[in-house]
Amino acid sequence: MCPYSCRMGRYDVVVFDNDGVLVDSEPISNRVLAEYLTELGHPTTFEESVRDYMGAAVHRIHDLVLERSGRRLPDDFDETFHSRVFAAFRRELSAVGGVHEVLAKLDADGVPYCVASSGSHERIRVALGRTGLAVHFGEGRIFSAQDVGRGKPAPDLFLLAAEKMGVRPDRCAVVEDSPLGVRAALAAGMDVYGFTSMTPREKLVGATAHFSRMEELPALLS
User: Does 59 fall in a domain?
Assistant: First the structure.
């Protein structure tokens, strides 16, 4: 039984990705990642970072670098990378345009929502706090790849979110901006709405619908 006051409608819960959907973090984090990998002797452009790592958990960076170069990243890579990203977030990060209004609309309509992100809990908290979105995501509404054994594109994270929110997967709508996230949502048996502000729609294969401005989302969900 749904623990929130679910509206009887098309969906019982909306599941938001964080990076690139709630917060405009992808340009920042991919810039920092490309610069750091290049500094470590693994030349990477911003475009390559977006292509290879956008929407993925940090272990994918380790796996791809090892596969391509035969060299492991340093033991302190995660700590240093996250430290640099958080510092940049505190200087530059903003909410995705229109997302405050979308969340207010969902609140007014009585539609529960949560966030399910490949990022760590710390990264999610920093991002939501910096952008003023934390007020919308209280206890039990934040889910991280740290909570499951497999990150996106495996369905585990979205299935966990549905379980904890008390709804069936087929009653969830996922909002994603990465190919890995779309694949994960589809594998979980959920409808997924592809946000194309940074990713071309042809990359978000299988999405239920695509949209380029957050203001378009409520109409798609209704």
Answer: yes
